[in-house]
Amino acid sequence: MAYTRGTSNNIIVGAAAFFIADSTLTAGTLPSFVSSESYRDTLSDDADFTNVGYTMNGLELQFQPDFGEVQVDQLLDVAKLYKQGMQVNMATAFAEATLENLLLALAYNDGELSGTKSTSAGQTLNLSAGDIGECPVERGIVAVGPGTGDCEDSAYVERVYAAYRALSIENVTVSAKRDEPSMFEVSFRLLPEDTSASYGKIVDRTWAPAS
């Protein structure tokens, strides 16, 4: 095979649409792909998923392996490394500072949010301290962004990021500043699901609108 410098179609530029599920996910509970529509539209039509709307700073998926070392007398460096741990995090910033998005960022139960902002009583998010023995709220995450490959006139490429179990564990700041927008920076710790021990999956797919 002749040498080529690279393939520019495999360079990804662009943001992803961010959806959060009401509960955790598995490979079997993810909505099925539809060949004639973007996965963004598939998730938008699913009542179990919430579109957080505008985001800032894109989507960051970070893998942090932890390796142990074996040292021996005859070497000044280690003789062997072995994997002893793994941590995966997903981070973004919710640019739409709604109470619904704040509830998701704080990993609160849906019951902490009540009312509607269109009424005189307003919408209320109860800032609960929780209780001893309270279970942390885990939700699934799916993000849909541009994918790799040749985007022809009659088809589109996209990349789907699916996280089966996600838990918000970092500090969340709520601000009102004169020269900066209010947004919720959120970092999710991903956990492997029980059956497959998988954190989720990444899918590159092509879809074509129905003619």
Key features of this structure:
single chain, 211 residues, mainly beta, Pnp Oxidase, Chain A, 8-stranded antiparallel sheet, 39% strand, globular
Describe the model.
The chain is mainly β and 211 residues long. It has one domain (14-111, 136-207): Roll (Pnp Oxidase, Chain A). The protein is built from two helices and ten strands; from the N terminus they run E-H-E-E-E-H-E-E-E-E-E-E. It has helices spanning 39-44, 99-105, and strands spanning 17-21, 49-51, 55-71, 78-94, 113-114, 124-125, 139-146, 156-168, 184-191, 200-207. Strands 1, 2, 3, 4, 7, 8, 9 and 10 form an eight-stranded antiparallel beta sheet that branches. A two-stranded antiparallel ribbon has the order 5-6. The protein is globular. The two termini are 38 Å apart.
Mind sketching the topology for me?
Elements: E1 17-21, H1 39-44, E2 49-51, E3 55-71, E4 78-94, H2 99-105, E5 113-114, E6 124-125, E7 139-146, E8 156-168, E9 184-191, E10 200-207
Antiparallel strand pairs: 1-2, 1-7, 3-4, 4-9, 5-6, 7-8, 8-9, 8-10
Give a summary of the structure in a few sentences.
6% of the residues lie in helices and 39% in strands.
What Rg is obtained from the alpha carbons, in whole angstroms? Answer: 21 Å
Let me know the largest β-sheet.
Answer: 8 strands, antiparallel
Low-confidence stretches: none
Percentage of helical residues? under 10%
Head-to-tail CA distance between termini: 38 Å
Count up the helices.
2
The CATH topology, please?
A: Pnp Oxidase, Chain A
Shape: globular
Q: Strand content of the residues, in percent? A: 35-45%
> Which structural category do the helix and sheet elements fall into?
mainly beta
List the helices and strands in order. EHEEEHEEEEEE
Mean pLDDT: 92
Give the oligomer, counting copies of the same chain as homo and different chains as hetero. Answer: single chain
What's the CATH architecture name?
Roll
